[in-house]
Structure formats: structure tokens, C-alpha cells
């Protein structure tokens, strides 16, 4: 640093004129690479700093979560049930994250002992319900942006269009891309379609939606995704765990599937029970006409349902099942 004329790291920030571009690289990928736009120095205005010298105010005291935390005081201090309702707009981002932090301070990973139910009306911003704690149920009447349910940690998320809206939910995208990224547990019921990369890296959440875009269930490692509608291309790419059910009414799902790591398996009795439970909740929470139609014609609907199962995950489950049965047999014989 001294040789370059700097006393501190802060003095070095932005001084790209001190960088030398190597001229001995012959690799075809790099030899014609022009770095001058990257190294160009934009002269700073006199009132601007080259590095962060001014403390920023993100107005965190005014975010929606402050109101949520205030509403949750009976739950946080006395373990009581809470019901509340708030309007929401798309600049209300990460709603519920600060609330879940406060819950974790009191109840650790156990979540609330009594339910906290919050109804929102409007258009939810990015990362709605991120890391939402167990015991909290968020219901949105309206629509939502990207990263819905990111890191979901036991909470429940519900979404359906505004009752005054004329849109047909199952034909319209009501929530954005990358829903349930890294979710570990919890449930969600979405009346309408989602964007791309639905359930990417989901590792434990159980969710229902009525159609998704490209790359659905990408790198999914656990949980359950029930898709009552069409999917985009490259479905299940890198999917190593969990299970997905797709209502393939058009009969073209195999053309959209990435089969590298998954198989299409038959629907078994335990699948039927799981689907019956989840779709009944979907109807209860969202009023979904699509789910109601499925339930009203259950046998015919099941016939066109596709079960997507990762091969290695299936092998692990079968091994565990065999070991459990063997242990049970040995226990009976011992008696």
C-alpha cells in the first residue's frame, strides 16, 4: 500500500488508475477482452465521497413490520392469540421478517404458542413473509411480488386476488418469481399462477399454486409442491429431494420436464391422502375453484396428475422404509 502511495484501505477505494492490465495473456477467451470500461474513473463531485462516508438512513422505524410487532405484543409478552388487518403496498418489502426475529427472541425455533393471523389488502412487495415463524399466518387479498415466502420457517402464507377484481385467478400471474427460495418449513396456498423458478431450493415447505413459469422446482431438496395447472420449460432441473404433483390436463408435461434427476411415479394411497388434505385447505383458505373442481372429480383428476420424484431421494426413502419394517419385524419376533 505504501508503495502505491496509500496509508489506508479507504484511500485505495476507486483508485483504479493504480491497476495494471496484464499483456501476456494468450488465452482466446481473454486476449481480446477490453477492461477499459471497467477501470474507467468517473470523477466524483466535490460534495460526493469516493467511498461510504455518510451514514445512511433506511427509515426502518417506519416500515410495516413495526406495526406488526406492535400488534404482536400480546403474543410476544403473554402468549395470546392475535388477529389484525393492514393495507399493504409494493414498497412494503420483507413484511414479517422483523416480526419473526422478535418471535425467535422469545420463543426460539418453537414459534408462537397461539396463532397470529394477519390479513393484508393490496399489493405485497418483494420477499413477503420471508423467514416467517411458526404460528403466524399471513393472508393477502390482492397480489404479490418476487421472493414470496423466501426462507419460510414454519409460517403459513395465503394469497388470492381482490374480491372486486374481474381477473380469472388461474389464468393470471398473481405472485412473482423465485417463490419459496430456501424455504425450510411451513405452508402456502396461492390462488392463481406464479412466475419463474417457483420453489427453487425449497427444502421443506408444502405449497399449492395454480400454474408456474419456467424452471419450476429447480434445485428443490425437500417439501411438497402441488401445481394445479401448466408449467414452463425445464421443470425439476437439479431437483434432488421433495416431491411435486402437476395436474397435467393438457397432457404435455413430459415435454417440459428436465428428466436428468427425476422420474414420473404412480400416485399411491399416501399421495391421495396428502393431496386431499392440501387441496381441502386450499379451497378453505382461498376459495379456489380449480381445487374445488379437482376435489369434485377426484378420481378423474388423479388420473391426469403427474408425480415428479427425484431418483436418489426415492431410493433413500425406500431404504428407510425397509429398515423400519425390518426393525418392526425383529421387535415382534423378540416378543
List strands and helices in order, with pairings.
Layout: H1 9-12, H2 36-39, H3 64-71, H4 73-78, E1 82-88, H5 97-107, E2 116-124, E3 136-144, E4 153-160, E5 173-175, E6 185-190, E7 193-194, E8 203-209, E9 221-227, E10 241-247, E11 262-265, H6 269-286, H7 289-296, H8 298-303, E12 305-310, H9 311-334
Parallel strand pairs: 1-2, 2-3, 3-4, 4-6, 5-7, 6-8, 8-9, 9-10
Antiparallel strand pairs: 10-12, 11-12
Helix pairs in contact: 3-5, 6-7
Describe this structure in words.
- The protein has nine helices and twelve strands.
- By secondary structure, the chain is of the alpha/beta class.
- It has two domains: 1-52, no CATH class; 83-323, Glutamate synthase, alpha subunit, C-terminal domain (Pectate Lyase C-like), CATH 2.160.20.60.
- The strands form two sheets. A ten-stranded mixed beta sheet has the order 1-2-3-4-6-8-9-10-12-11, with helices on both faces.
- Strand 1, helix 5 and strand 2 (116-124) form a beta-alpha-beta unit.
- Helix 3 (64-71) packs parallel to helix 5 (97-107) and helix 6 (269-286) runs antiparallel to helix 7 (289-296).
- The longest helix is centred in the C-terminal third of the chain and has 24 residues, at 311-334.
- Its cofactor is [3Fe-4S] cluster; FAD; FMN.
- Belongs to the glutamate synthase family.
- Keywords: 3Fe-4S, Amino-acid biosynthesis, FAD, Flavoprotein, FMN, Glutamate biosynthesis, Glutamine amidotransferase, Iron, Iron-sulfur, Metal-binding, Oxidoreductase.
- Its EC number is 1.4.1.13.
Amino acid at each position: 500500500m505504501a508503495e502505491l502511495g496509500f496509508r489506508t484501505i479507504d484511500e485505495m477505494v476507486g483508485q483504479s488508475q493504480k491497476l495494471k492490465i496484464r499483456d501476456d495473456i494468450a488465452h482466446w477467451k481473454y486476449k481480446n477482452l477490453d477492461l477499459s470500461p471497467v477501470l474507467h474513473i468517473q470523477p466524483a463531485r466535490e460534495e460526493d465521497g469516493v467511498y461510504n462516508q455518510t451514514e445512511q438512513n433506511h427509515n426502518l422505524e417506519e416500515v410495516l413490520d413495526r406495526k406488526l410487532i406492535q400488534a404482536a405484543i400480546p403474543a410476544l409478552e403473554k402468549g395470546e392469540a392475535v388477529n389484525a388487518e393492514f393495507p399493504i403496498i409494493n414498497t412494503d418489502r420483507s413484511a414479517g421478517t422483523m416480526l419473526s426475529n422478535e418471535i425467535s427472541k422469545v420463543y426460539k425455533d418453537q414459534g408462537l404458542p397461539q396463532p397470529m393471523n394477519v390479513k393484508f389488502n393490496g399489493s405485497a412487495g418483494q420477499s413477503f413473509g420471508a423467514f416467517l415463524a411458526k404460528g403466524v399466518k399471513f393472508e393477502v387479498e390482492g397480489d404479490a411480488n418476487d421472493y414470496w415466502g423466501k426462507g419460510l420457517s414454519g409460517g403459513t402464507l395465503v394469497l388470492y386476488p381482490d374480491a372486486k377484481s374481474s381477473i380469472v385467478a388461474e389464468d393470471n400471474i398473481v405472485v412473482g418469481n423465485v417463490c419459496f427460495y430456501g424455504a425450510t418449513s411451513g405452508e402456502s396456498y396461492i390462488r392463481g399462477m406464479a412466475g419463474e423458478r417457483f420453489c427453487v431450493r425449497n427444502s421443506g415447505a408444502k405449497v399449492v399454486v395454480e400454474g408456474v413459469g419456467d424452471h419450476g422446482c429447480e434445485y428443490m431438496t425437500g417439501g411438497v409442491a402441488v401445481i394445479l395447472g401448466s408449467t414452463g420449460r425445464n421443470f425439476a432441473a437439479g431437483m434432488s429431494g421433495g416431491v411435486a404433483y402437476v395436474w397435467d390436463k393438457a397432457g404435455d408435461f413430459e415435454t417440459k420436464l428436465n428428466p436428468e434427476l427425476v422420474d414420473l411415479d404412480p400416485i399411491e394411497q399416501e399421495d391421495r391422502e396428502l393431496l386431499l388434505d392440501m387441496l381441502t385447505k386450499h379451497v378453505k383458505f382461498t376459495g379456489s375453484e380449480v381445487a374445488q373442481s379437482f376435489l369434485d372429480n377426484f378420481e378423474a383428476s388423479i388420473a391426469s396428475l403427474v408425480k415428479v420424484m427425484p431418483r436418489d431421494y426415492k431410493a433413500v426413502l425406500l431404504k428407510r422404509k425397509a429398515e423400519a419394517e425390518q426393525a418392526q419385524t425383529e421387535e415382534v419376533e423378540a416378543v
